[in-house]
Amino acid sequence: MRHEKATKLLDLARRLASSSEGLTLDEMAQAMEVGRRTAERMRDAVWSAFPQMEAIEDPPTRRFRIPSGLDSLFQTPTAEELAALRTAADSNAAAGAEARAAALYALEGKLLSALKGSARRRVAPDVEALVQAETIAVHAGPRPFEDQGVLAEIRSAVKGLTALSFRYEGGSQPGRTRTVTPLGILFGRSNYLVSLEGQSPRPRTFRLDRMSEVEALDKPASPPAAFSLQAFADESFGIYHGEIEDVVLRIKSERAEDALRWRFHSNQVVTQGPDGVVIVAFRASGMLELAWHLFTWGDAVEIVSPESLKHRMIEELERALAAHRQT
Prior knowledge:
Elements: H1 2-18, H2 25-32, H3 36-49, E1 54-58, E2 61-65, H4 72-75, H5 79-94, H6 98-114, H7 117-133, H8 148-160, E3 162-168, E4 176-186, E5 192-197, E6 204-207, E7 211-220, H9 229-234, E8 245-251, H10 256-261, E9 269-272, E10 278-284, H11 287-295, E11 301-305, H12 307-325
Antiparallel strand pairs: 1-2, 3-4, 3-7, 4-5, 5-6, 8-10, 8-11, 9-10
Helix pairs in contact: 1-3, 2-3, 5-6, 5-7, 11-12
């Protein structure tokens, strides 16, 4: 218990040293997952150990920070942190996300090179032991396209608030060169650029593997101030966007444990009745992708609403059944 408390105090100290604005007591309590009174005691303990900590008046509250940072002794990454970074890099590499994997491997190299020789020799065996004991389960599915040149141009346009030009081998006019306002990238089974094109206020998605001749232009193109990429992603069950509908699913009691641990959607509401049946409700578009996913649940799930999802599921099942009956 004493070791755990010391570790949490060092964690709080790192957070206070890495924040330029400082943290309020409520923010400390939330970050450390403790009550406000406990956060106050932890703050006082850190202040005692690091007297350079300062209080900043920010009415109606106060913020606290350690302005000069911490000695490298306290900032040395642990074996668990380095192993988690390697696992994340390996996971991206296994999934085909080569660009993000390369960035994480590069970050790992920088962290290790920044360590003093003795610290590096001490932590390296533990990192390798953890990496060998933890592996990535690779699931079937498409490998996402991540060309570093394409990503670099998109990110350049996003950071510079400029327009993006590319040739697109998809949509209703394959091969057409498009000029868009880039809004961000959705990473998943396939990677998509989210952008605005022309005068339409509705964001569009373009698959990165169908884009070529990508170039960040010297032409201002700022995204709408109120746009949120996360909110846009949350509208749909998957990538495809359409009419947002109220979805209600009923999962049999035999699969209740799985359903209670499953995330169908970010805004889902999950309830379980006395009979063990689980009801999952959320608002989303993308009924085709949702139907594909629900098929993996077999007869354990019943679509209560909407009717469009029921019809889509029936159509997909009939199409698959017809294809197999012909063989």
